[in-house]
Amino acid sequence: MRVLATAGKIYSGLLALALTWIYFQDRLKWTLFTPLSEERLARDLLAGLAVAVFVICLSLFASRNFAWAQLLEDEFSKVLVPLPVWEILALALLSGLVEEILFRGAIQPAFGLVSTSLLFGLAHIIPRRAFLPWSAYAVFAGFLFGSLFELTHNLLPVIVAHSVSNFVLILVLNRRKTVQTV
Fold first, then answer.
1. Distance of CA 144 to CAs 13, 53, 95, 149, Å?
2. Whole-number Å distance between alpha carbons of 5 and 86
3. pLDDT averaged over the chain?
4. For 25-41, how does the pLDDT look when each residue is reduced to its tens digit (9 = 90+)?
5. Which end of the chain lies in a sparser environment, N or C, as judged by fewer CB atoms within 10 Å?
6. Domain-by-domain residue ranges, the chain?
7. Burial bucket for residue 72 (CB in 10 Å: 0-12, 13-18, 19+)
8. 162 and 145 in contact (C-beta within 8 Å)?
9. Please, what is the Cα angle at 26 between 94 and 34, to 5 degrees?
10. Beta-carbon count within 10 A of 109 CB
């Protein structure tokens, strides 16, 4: 519960910042969040899920085949294991929603895809050597999520991609590390 409480405090501030930024850009419109038709909703959800599957598969491949990714798992497990499923879901939804409103909804329209992707990576820097690959991976994910936003002009698929990726990967981390300790 302390992970979620801490995340809630951080993300509340980031959400306020993002919405204020969007408001002063005169872009605070619900069309950033919701598609206009059922067909578009289906297409955007599928696009978000497809990107999530790609991110998940790439992450799982890395964690099975590269020492740096295994080290990252070990480091993240110190904070994210054990967590109940409901807390993993809440954390994934919170991070996906707020980070995408901030980075794709507020920053990307003002600064573009490249700058926003680099900022996304910088926002994921933890000043320890073991976490440097995660920051680089966040730049890659930023380009992926940002490209999806450019393609759809909608935050929904990007929020879905980010939230689903986080949920599945944190859930897998919990399952792996819980099994290892038993």
1. 25, 12, 16, 9
2. 13
3. 92
4. 877 665 555 556 889 88
5. C
6. 2-181
7. buried
8. yes
9. 45
10. 16
